[in-house]
Amino acid sequence: MPPPPVEQLLADCKESALHLELRDGYTADDPAFHAWKAGHRIDLNDRRSWWRPWLQNIVDATSRGVRVRRARIVSEPVSDYIRFEHGCTVPNVRAGEEVRWLSRRNATSLPLPANDFWLFDGQLLLVHHFSGAGDKVDTEIVDTDSVITFYRDAFEAVWQRAVPHQDYRLV
To answer: How many helices (DSSP H) and strands (DSSP E) are in the chain?
Structure first.
C-alpha cells in the first residue's frame, strides 16, 4: 500500500513540516519548466495566474500553527531547473513556507541523507526516490527512530547554514 500523498500528511500535521531537496533538477518533462525555458515568468502582481492548490495547503497548515520549512541544497553555478525553481519560490514564501538555499560547496562537511524527504511533526518520515532523470519513482514511510533522528538532524544542520530565499543570489 503506497503512503498517503504529501498533501494529506501536511493536512494532518500539527506542529512542523520539514522538506529537504537535494537534486539539481526534477521532472524533465514539467510543462511549467518548459514554459519558463521559453521565456514565461510568473507575474507576482497577478495572484490568480500563479496560485495553485499546493499553496493553499501551505496556507491551511501555517494558519493552524504548523511551521513549514524547505531547504534546498544546490550546485553552483546553478542548473536551469534551479533557476526556474528560484523564480517560482516567492509564491511559496507568500503562502507561509520558509525556504532556504545552501550551496553544495557549503554542505561538504555535513552528513546528509541520500534522498529528498519530508518529516512531519518530527515523527513521520516520507522519503522520495527519483530516477536519474529526476522523475519521482516512489515514496516510502520510514519509521526507524535512528533514521528519523538522522534526517531531522541533517535538515537542521542544513537550515543553520542555508541562506533565506530573499537573500540567496543565483550564481
So the answer is: 7, 7
